[in-house]
Amino acid sequence: MTSGPDFGVEAELRLVEARVHEAVRSEESLLTDIAEYVIGAGGKRIRPTVALLANKAVGGRDLSRAIEMAAALELIHSATLVHDDINDGGVTRRGRDAAYKKYGVQNALVAGDFLFVKAFAIGGRFEPDLLDLTARVCTSLAEAEIVQRRHAGDLAWTPDQYLNLVRRKTAMPISAGARIGAILGGGKPEEVEALTEYGLNLGIAFQIVDDILDVVGDPTVLGKPVGTDLREGNMTLLVLHAMNDGVERRAELTRIIRRNPRSSRSVARGLALIRGSGAVELARADAERFRARALEALDDVRPGPHRDSLARLADFVVHRKA
Amino acid sequence: MTSGPDFGVEAELRLVEARVHEAVRSEESLLTDIAEYVIGAGGKRIRPTVALLANKAVGGRDLSRAIEMAAALELIHSATLVHDDINDGGVTRRGRDAAYKKYGVQNALVAGDFLFVKAFAIGGRFEPDLLDLTARVCTSLAEAEIVQRRHAGDLAWTPDQYLNLVRRKTAMPISAGARIGAILGGGKPEEVEALTEYGLNLGIAFQIVDDILDVVGDPTVLGKPVGTDLREGNMTLLVLHAMNDGVERRAELTRIIRRNPRSSRSVARGLALIRGSGAVELARADAERFRARALEALDDVRPGPHRDSLARLADFVVHRKA
Hints:
Two copies of one chain form a homodimer.
Chain A: H1 10-23, H2 29-40, H3 46-57, H4 64-88, E1 92-93, E2 96-97, H5 99-103, H6 105-123, H7 128-150, H8 159-184, H9 189-216, H10 219-222, H11 228-232, H12 237-243, H13 247-258, H14 264-275, H15 279-297, H16 305-319
Helix pairs in contact in A: 1-4, 2-6, 3-4, 3-8, 3-16, 4-6, 4-7, 4-8, 7-8, 8-9, 9-15, 9-16, 12-15, 13-14, 15-16
């Protein structure tokens, strides 16, 4: 894996990585290959970083169980990436072919199942509360996929619906990692709640920035093309903001969104309309607002270097370029 | 659900069914709808029947945990049916459209994940040994899918490879159900081993009969067309036996199997070649042999009406018409 500044958990992240690799060993080398391909693609490792920092921030000393759980959450994340790419037809991911492009849809589908199973083989060894939370994360992810697809191109979609979707598809997994980390670290109840709240707001900010980068990001830095959301009809905050910026812009965006499938040309035109509106700045302000809420939540966590790292992480998430 | 003779666990099977339905409730009604559609399609309920009978056969009184685990295994089975149908392009299942045909590939893929998660939310509450066994079942299923696909149309495939595949894709889940049922019922160690062995042999017999029905079954009784294995290039025992029945038959079957995709006409011709050979009778004899081994394994289980039911179940599995 690559990337990201150092938040003081590099050694533990390497242990998470090793645990993930150990988990996906299989007699069927193709399954291991696909799993390693997805895991090895790197990524920002936000989820395990949050879980490990939350654990340390509340005074956790023995990180072995937090490492196990962080590995389970990474496996779940990898499984959903593989299946989501199949579902969305996303052809590149982190600068490389999506797994289903490289290995075929059928093999990738099975490999995704395999990753889920390996996650639960780890997560199932934890207390029922933590297992339930992990299962709720997965249920939320599945529900979010359905909601996002059902409301693709939905011109009546509201910012509240968007935020509710983002809670389920991005914020809940990050928040659950923070919560589990804090519980396993022996955090006080108010710290556990605070870190849960931190993770939720961090996750929302993270997704808003993802949506911004899908409009104004640099594809070579992102490792994937921009405009995916618009092509899929995902009604992100940016689309919603742009729709409110002038009658003519709304009319033209409406025509583009109503069309399905959307051509590369109409996606390019839609991106230009969003970029030309005040949407990007408004969305950046939204992301900053959720970052501020995440920082505020940290007030209830004991001061220390790991709490500071969590604050820096929120900064990184909002200001990243990829 | 429908079907099958009464093996003395009808009341418990209804509780398993209720537990499965409870597990798939979701805020997203589409997920519940898809899950209910798959579960509601019925089926022979061999897996929960074996688990429940194994539990009772060793003197299990309180079936509540066996019912939970049987529900988890049914959820796993349903998840794999949904994903396998996507992968195999099977358009009908139990006389109805496959889930992905009715709800779309994307929704069905997510619904399959959802069913897996719900299974593990139940299975994860059990002792690590039982959770591990459940996870191994899922891993085996994933590995078997990969092996089956990789060796589709493989003319060097052997009966041993076939049996190894069948162990992983069909026999292991049934055997695990028997084992878990026996453990939860408080069976003696030799009874647990005996019922594991019973399940393994029952599962192999079950799959061989499935393969036979895909050649000589009545599509209206089966609820699906025949010839699926041949179309997919699955090298079942029947194909292997037919290949050994005359040089000309082998040559023509080889030509059909080498072709890919295989036309309806060539599949029909292939079926005629298999039916005209001694393959069906040889495969029936194979199934009977595994049934006999299953019965033999029962010798180490205490005598009683539930052990008798397990014997009758083996009979039913081998002599069924669908």
